[in-house]
Amino acid sequence: MVIVKLENVGLRYGVGPEILRDVSLTLEEGAFHFLTGPSGAGKSSLLKLMYLAHRPTRGLISLFGHDIATTDRTKLPALRREVGVVFQEFRLLDHLSTFDNVALPMRVANVHEKDIKKHVTELLTWVGLKDHMGARPTTLSGGQQQRVALARAVITRPRLLLADEPTGNVDDKLAVRLLHLLEELNKLGTTIVMATHNEGLVRQFGHPRICIEDGRVEQMGPLRPARGGGIRMEGKIS
Amino acid sequence: MSFLSFNHHKDLPLDKDPGTRFLPWLIAFMVYLAALSVIATSIMQSVSARWERGVNDTLTVQLPPAQSVGEDQERMAQSLKILRNHPAVVLAEPVAKSHVLSLLEPWLGDADTLAQMPVPHLINVSLRREVDMDAEALVVKLDQVAPGATMDDHRIWMDRLIRMSKTLEYGAYLVLSLICLASIGTVFFVTKTGLAIHHDVIEVLHLIGAQDSYIARQFAEHSLHMGLRGGMLGLAVAGPTFGGFAYLYRQVDSALLPQIDITIMQWIAVLALPFISALMGYLTARSAVLRSLKKMV
Question: Under an 8 A CB cutoff, do B208 and A93 touch?
């Protein structure tokens, strides 16, 4: 099944230059891709389109088979709940505890508090933060914050997980650990796109790449076949 | 009645906003003023109604003094006869001379001096409201038996007083409306400030799939809470103020100030002010947030 489909997508902010140009790609269910490219190339913008933070200036985006342009605005929150996002800089809510940060996506989905407690506790145990459930994000280390952000992104078992340079502020050891966690999720069927600058990780884990340069999808470089699906690049490939 | 439920988690730290510190005080002041306006309106309604009733029911006939006591008595007797035979008159009673003198004493000196002066004779007349009375024809009749007789129809100056009290009543309504508008405006701008302060948190909530109503509810419940707190405080301060005014009112010895009756409904309106202000805050905040969030994708 196609999870994300972009056709001739362009994006510009206000009257500025086009950040993304003629991007066309299709992500199949269960795929795992790295999104690479230099700073300012449009990686974050592409992810923002996928997690519905922006609408494209032109072109079509389809998420889980729904054409975003024609989908009623009131139905978009339900689609967003199918997408887990690990934001750049994590964007944890400093006034909430680790537990409440992770519980947030379940609360906005009106899940019963009893179920929230069960699932959040399980997940925080899985990511090794059981002893930090009451801690505020500001008191956690970079690696711990990264895991809280990941736990928040996956607590509702999303079909698509988008991670925007989640390893940017942590050392290689923690980055590798995060990748292993993502692979575990991918094995459970979650489609994953992870933006990164870390070429070492890309080589080490060998998932296909979506490479963006100057707003265009430039190349795809699967070092080994991705499990459960692949990517068909329809944009400009150099 | 989900808006009264406070069991929801507060994902937004609205309690720490600068606006949160002054909003209850501002609402307290607004509710205090609103309570005074409501009471003022009620008093004006009560006064107008009583004056109106009084005006329609009474008039005073004034007979100029004659040359002799006997002539005075004759004029009084004939005037009373004419009045008592009129279908619109329920009662016509002469005002005792001593009472007339006591009314004049503050202006014209002691009663002994006044007794030497030609003082007009007064007749208090109570009217039957349902029967029309031709006042001019009655004065003509009275003039025939007591030349120079005049009729002091209270309606003329009472009408002016009633118009004045009605104007004050409408003024109180206007003040009340302005207080409502000011309260709505305050809550609106505090909410807008909150939206700006918590933009990042709101964006995260939005992106993880929160419905607009989920975010709006948090602002609305916060405003409801602030409105209730401020409203209760304002009402608590308004209580002693009413007491003080009531005390001062009782000290004024004047026939112009009738007894004031504030009905149960009017008291309920005053006691409902904190809840009304809280509900207005809830609806204003909710509406402001929903309008703002619509601009997001």
Answer: no
